[in-house]
Each structure stands twice: as C-alpha cells, then as structure tokens.
Amino acid sequence: MGKKTIIPFGPQHPVLPEPVHVDLVVEDEKVIEAIPQIGFIHRGLEKLVQKKDFMQFVAVTERICGICAFGHSMGYSETIEILMGLEIPKRAQYLRVIWHELSRIHSHLLWLGLLADGFGYENLFMQCWRLRENVLGIFEKTTGGRVIFSACNVGGVTQDIEDGDLKGIVAILDGMRSEYEELLKTFLYDSSVKNRLSGIGYLSKQDAESLCLAGPFARASGLVEDCRLDGYGGYGDLAAFEPVLSEDGDGHARCEVRAREVYQSMDIIAEMVSKIPDTPISLPVKGMPGAGTAAVHHVEQPRGESFYYAKGNGTKFLSRFRIRTPTSHNIGGMTKILQGCDLADVALNILTIDPCISCTER
Amino acid sequence: MGSFMLTKMSFRNLFKKPVTKMYPVEPPVYTSRSKGHVVNDIKECILCGICEKRCPTGAIVVDKPAETWTINPFACIQCMFCVRACPKSCLTMEHGYTPPSTSMYTHTDTKPELTAEEQAEKLAREKEKAERLAAAKAAKQAQAGEADNGKE
Description:
The complex is a heterodimer. Chain A is α+β, with helices and mostly antiparallel strands.
C-alpha cells in the first residue's frame, strides 16, 4: 500500500470552464476520496431581490449563468406568475419553450465540444462549436442577443417571432441534422472516443437515486428524472414526451444521453412551431405579489432540475427568492464517481457531470 | 465501432471557406434586432422619467429642471426596459456596442433651444392649460356653493 497524498485540483484547470476546487486524496495512482469546495464566484444575487423590484429582477436572474440564461429568466417569470395567479397567453408559453430548447441545443453542443477538448480531440471540438454558432445566430436574429436575450419577462415574452421566421428556425435546425449526424456517430461509435470514455466514472441507478441526482447525469444511469414530464408551460401540449435514457451509467452513457437530447430538442421545436397559436405574446401585470404568498416551481435546465421559491410581502420587492440548481446536488455524484478512479481520469470525470458553478453559487 | 470517423468532414473542410470572421477588419453583420446602445430622440422626449424608474441598473438620469437626459453607457445592460416603457417611443436600441474606453463617461442629451415659433406655441399651450384649470376650478367651486345653498 502506498502513502496517502493530497493533490489539489482546480480552481484553475484547463478542463474547467468555471472554478471548482477538489482535494484529491490519492494512494499511488488511485483516488480514494475527493473533497469538493465551492465559493469562488459567489455574488449574492438572491439578496438583490430586496433592491430590485420583481419586474426588474428578471434581468438579474438572467445573469446568474451564461449558458442557462434563458432557463433562469423563464423559471423566475413562471414562479412569479404562479405567485400572482397569472395565466399567460399560449403563444408566449410556446415561444418560451422554443427558446429554452434552443438553449438546450446550444448548451449540449458546447458541452460536447468541451468533452472532445477534454480528451484531446481538437477537431471534434471545433466542429461542435461551429454547429453551435448556427443556434447563436438564431438567438441574435430573434432576440437581439447571443447569450443574454432579455426575451422573457413576468407576464409573457418581450419579442414575438414571425411565423415565417419560426419556419426559418426549423429549416436551419433541419439543415444542421446531417452534419450533426456525423458528429453523433463519431461520439457514439468512434474507437478513440469510446476507448477514452467507456467504463470511466460508473454510477449505478441505486446510487443515482440515493444521491438525488438530476438531469442527464441521472438519466445516464437509467433514472427517469425529467421535469418536462410534468408538462409545465408549453410542454403540456406536446403529443408525447419520452426522456432519453441510458443504462450504462459511465462517461460514454452521459455523452450519449446529451448527444441524443439535441435531436429530441430539435423535434420539440418543430412540434411547437407547427402548433403555435396566434394569440398576444404578453399580459399586462397589475398589482404586487401579495403579503404572505409563496410559490414554488421547477424547470428542466440543460443540466437538470432547477428549483425556484419566491415569497411576496405585498410590496414590489419580494421578501425571499431562492434557486436550487442541478449542479448543487450533482456535485455529490461527482465525489462518488471520483472515488476509486485513476488520477488521469479525474479531469474527464469532473467534466462528464457538466458542472455549472456560476448557477450553483449565484 | 470504427476509427477516423470524422475524416470525411475534416477533408471537406479543407476546400471550404473559414466560418470565422476577421472581426475588426471585416465589419460585423447586424440583424434588425441586434442590441447595442440606447439612443434618445431628445426633441420628442418629454422628460417624464419613466425610463429612469424602470432601469434596473440606474444607468439613466433625467433632470427635468435642467432639461437633460443622461445615460451611463457602461452601466447599461441593454435590457430594453426603457425602450418598451417610453410613452413617446423616442428611445431606440441602435446597433454597435459602446467602444472600449480608459475611463467611464456619461452621455448627456439636452433639450434644444426652442425657436420663436415653438416658444409661442408652448406659451399658448400653457395658457390654454391654465385657463382650462381655472375654468374647472371655478365650476367645482360653483358646484360646491350650490350644494351648500341646498343644505341651508
């Protein structure tokens, strides 16, 4: 038996897009324990709810994270709509779903690129990000922003997409399919990808369930865990929704689930575009959130379930707003898969859970 | 399972133009909704201050007595709250971000000096308003007087 050594990993590391620190207790080349530490980018955004009124706060929620920006503004707006008992027009709900699913495509393509970069496949990385650029182009055309859209507010959405432009979005996504097919085949069947990812960071279904994991991390272990099944907002009008699952539970399964979800999102957008009704896009918001009222809501972000809690006090400022993001519970799963892995696999294992530290620390 | 599955795509890329852009040399392509900076058509502006109240970052300051509208472009987050709230639609979002600078600066628009014609028009409008107010006041007083008489 070797001597125990502690190796610090992060907060600055080439595979980490955001800062997280892990103390790795290693024995020879094996990691026997991983102790995570977060807190490098805490900004105290939840406290800002006492300074910005409930209509302005949507601009703050959007800036919690650059990748889940639209998802957070949508989650916040829907929570406040539940709090105030607003029923927003169908077209606004559908447009939110379209933008949210586009965000998922862009997030997953970004992650697939980072994964390819993580195991040294630079060409694949560049091709993923090249395809992602199409989605960013759609964002800029429809909302005016590439990352922060300001398209969602309490009571509906701020910008409409013309029916012709909606068909254009579906055409762009259909045009991406053939090229994405080649990338998907590379991720799923190429020997260099498979050799690097198969078998690393295995997590069983029981462990995923007991650690309350969320999102693609849980679905890759075979756990049926997807908030879209609850049918909030426009998701309730989908003809059928089946979460993408994999039973393998290793790094390759997590890659497969995310890669296949891109197709699923494309299908959801096409269905929403074909069904979109012609109603107004927003509702005038009158009054304030009442004193003593509280509401909870959850939204399926690209990384999993994001939970929102808001409490009103009769003024234009909320008395409490809280977000729990998927990465905060997925970090538990991360420490689990790091136990017993090789030191050389640590970077890739951390990457496969798709950590979003900005969301987690807010 | 196969190997070199991305070779086809890589080979095709050899004969394609790059998708990236030589940014400062080639100008960026804007869409009709692209955000950049807020511009105020100060002639139309009535200095109501709604934009100042709606702005989440406090980037806009409206000074009614001095007739100025000031924006700090470094605090502006292009959320378009002010553009949507403007009752006269004189605020617009124009393309092009604020260029980088070594120090923070603010941009101030001042109401232009009125021409003699516009001045006369303004005075006439104010006079008419004062007359209207006076008439309404007189009518109210007369009504109140009648009610008092009725009581007696």
